Fold this sequence. Notes:
By secondary structure, the chain is of the alpha+beta class.
Amino acid sequence: MPVVTLDGGEFARATCPRCSVSYYLPHDLYQVAYRRRPEMSVWCPNGHTWVFSLGESELDVARRERDRLRQKLAEKDDEIRQAKAKEQEWHSKALAAGRESGRLKKRAAAGVCPCCNRTVQQMARHMKTAHPTYLAEATA
Length: 140
């Protein structure tokens, strides 16, 4: 609280919470109004009455709550955006795996070995003799 001495008297600077005008009160009046808050009112030069608050004003509480809710909303928006990106990624992977599976099935149906890319008439016999560990590796 800034205190100014004018003509031998001490004055404290105050600001009206309604109109934001700054003015000076006698320092003694300022101290009494501050000690006796919230029961003692002070008037600004524009005629607004106000009191020193004991804590935060309702406006400060409402602003803090608004800011908190905005932050939560932004966090939820980020979570939704990340979930959609993850869903799109998994969808793309599933499509790619389906295409690869279909491609391998067509090649196997045509008699092409998935290991060595040779065309074989007897695929079952070829897999047992040439690539005995392929089935175990493919399922693992």
